[in-house]
Amino acid sequence: MAGRKAGPGGLRAAFGATPQALSIYRISLGMLLTSELVLRFQFLHAFYTDEGTMPLHLLLPRIDTLYRWFCIHCHFGTLFQQQVLLAIQVIFAVMFTLGYRTKLASVVSWYMYSSAILRNTWLYFILDRYFFYLLFYGMFLPLSQCWSVDASMSKSPQLSNSPPSSASMASSKDQGQMAGESKSNDPQPTVSKAGNGEPSGVSVIVSPATVTLKLLVLWIYLDAGGGKYMDPLKGWTFYADPLPALDTYCRHTFMARCLYAILGPMGLRLLTPTVVWVELLSAPLAFVFSYVGNAKMTYAMIGIISSLHFGISLTIRNAVLLSFVAIVSWAIFLPVGWKESTTSSSSSARPQSDDAADDHSRSQMTPSTTTATASTTTTTTTNQLARSLINPSTLIIVAMISANVWFETVGDCTSGLKRNIFATLLQNRWNVFIGAEEYVTWEIAPGRLADGSIVDVWGRRDEVEWTMPGTGAPCTSTARPGRWRSFPYLAELDEEDNHILWEYLCMQWDAENLVDDPKNPHPERRLLRYNFFMLQADVLPNMGFSSTKKRLLHSHEGGQ
C-alpha cells in the first residue's frame, strides 16, 4: 500500500463533514441568503403590507394563536415596519456569513425566514424550500470552527493542520461556548483514521445534522431524477416525442440559444437522458467515494452536479439564485480538509529509532493480540459514532423528519392552520422540471387611461406588444420576474381577495405615474380599466413556436 493516498474513509467520512466544509457551507449559504433578502425589499409593498395584495385584515381572521406567535411578520402592516424587519434579517444574515455569534444568527435567520414565508404563502416556491431546510439543519451544525469571527475571537485556534490534542479539543469546546455555540447541539470534532490504520489528521464532525443534511441531499436528487425518469410522457428520454425536455428548455436566454446553436437538436436529444442519470447517481456515488476515502472522485461528483445547476442558471430565466442555493447544499460533501498522506512519506519522516521500536513491538504481537486490538478499535469507533448522534438536537431533527413523512403520507392539510403552516413548511418534494415544456407563456395587461390611451399595465409601458417577448425566448412573468411570478396564478381567488389582488395593479400604476401627486398631479394618466391576458405559444422543433394564443384571466375596473 506504499505510495497510495488515503483519505479518512468509513462511515465518518460518508455521514460527517469537516470544519472547512461546514464553513464553506455557512459562507456560501449566508451570501446567497443576504442576496435574496436584499432583493426582497422591492416586493415588500406589494406582498407584505396592508396596502398590498395580502393586508392583515384578510390574513388575521384565517389564522390562530399559534400561527400569530410563530409568524412575527403578521403583527406589522406598514411598509416601514416591514422594512425594519427585513433589515434585521439582513443584519443576521451578514452575521451568519461572517460567523459572528453564529448560533444566534442561524436560529434567528431560520425563524425570520420561516415567518416571512407564512406572511404570504402565495409567494412560496422551491427556492424558499431550499433556504428553509438548509437554514434549519444549519442551526445544529458547528459552522464557525474556522474562517469565522467567532474562531478569530477565541484565545487559541480551534483548528490546525495537525490532529487536535485532547487539551486543545477541550479548549475549543469552552471557547465555542463563549462564542455563543451550543455545547449539546454542536458535537466536537473527532479524529478519523485513514484506511491503513494511521491517523489521517482529519477532523471529521458527525452529528444528527450532518447525517440528516447529507440524506436530504440524497433525497432531493432521487426525487428530482426519479420524477424525470418516471415521466409518463417520457420527455427526458432519447426517444421523447415530439421533443426532448432539454430542447424545450434551452430557449429562454441568450446562453440557452448559444447552447442550442452549438449542440443542435440531436445533441440536445442525446444530452437529455444524461441529466436524469446525473441527478440519480451523483449523490449515491458521493456517499460511496466518501466512504472509501477517494477525495478526487468525491470532488468529481460535486463538480458534475454543480455544472448541471450552473447550466440551469444560464439557460432558464429566474433560476440563478435557485441554482446556486442547490449547489450550496453539496458543500457538506466537500472533502476539503482531508489531509491525504502516503504511508511511505509518513514512514520516511519518522526517526529510525522509532521504526526499530515499532518493528520490535510488532514482532512481539501474536495473532490473537492483533485481532483483539482491531476488535477493540472497531468497537471504540462505533461507540464514539453512536454517542455523537445522541444529543438533544436529535429529538428536534427526528420530529422534523417525522412531520415531513406524516405530511407526505397521511397528513390532512385541507383547511385552516394545517393548510397555511403544514402544507407550506413541511413540503419536502423536489420533483421540478419533470416533463418537457410543451409551451411557453407570458402576460400582458392592456389598460385604458383617462385620456383614452392604451398602455400595458403589467409591463409598465406605454405600448402594448402582443408579440412574443425576448426575441423568441419568453417565460412566465417575463415583464415582472422574482416574486411576481405567482401573481398570474392567483386569478381564481374569491371575492375580496380577488378584488384586492387586481386592484393593486391600478393603485401601483396611479402611484408610479403621479396621478394624485399633490404638487404636480397627472389625472390624465389615471388607469380606468384593464384586461389581464396570459399568452401562450406551443414549442415546435428547430427553435420554432406556434402562433400566439391568448386567454383572458381577469377584467378589472379601476377604483372600485
Roughly what percent helix? 40-55%
Tally of alpha and pi helices: 21
Q: Multimeric state of these chains?
A: single chain
Overall 3D shape: globular
Overall mean confidence score, pLDDT: 82
Largest sheet: 6 strands, antiparallel
Note poorly predicted spans: 1-6, 157-201, 340-359, 471-477
Please tell me how large the radius of gyration is. 28 Å
Number of strands: 8
List the topology elements.
Blueprint: H1 10-15, H2 19-40, H3 44-48, H4 56-59, H5 65-70, H6 79-98, H7 102-119, H8 126-138, H9 149-153, H10 166-178, E1 190-193, E2 199-204, H11 208-229, H12 245-249, H13 254-291, H14 295-315, H15 320-328, H16 343-348, H17 352-364, H18 367-389, H19 392-409, H20 416-425, E3 439-444, E4 446-449, E5 454-456, H21 495-512, E6 527-540, E7 544-545, E8 549-557
Antiparallel strand pairs: 1-2, 3-6, 4-5, 4-6, 6-7, 6-8
Helix pairs in contact: 2-6, 2-15, 6-7, 7-8, 8-15, 11-13, 13-14, 14-15
Structure description:
With 560 residues, the chain is α+β, with helices and mostly antiparallel strands. It has 21 helices and 8 strands. Strands 3, 4, 5, 6, 7 and 8 form a 6-stranded antiparallel beta sheet that branches. Helix 2 (19-40) packs antiparallel against helix 6 (79-98), helix 2 (19-40) packs antiparallel against helix 15 and helix 7 packs antiparallel against helix 8 (126-138). Mean pLDDT is 82; it is low at 1-6, 157-201, 340-359 and 471-477.
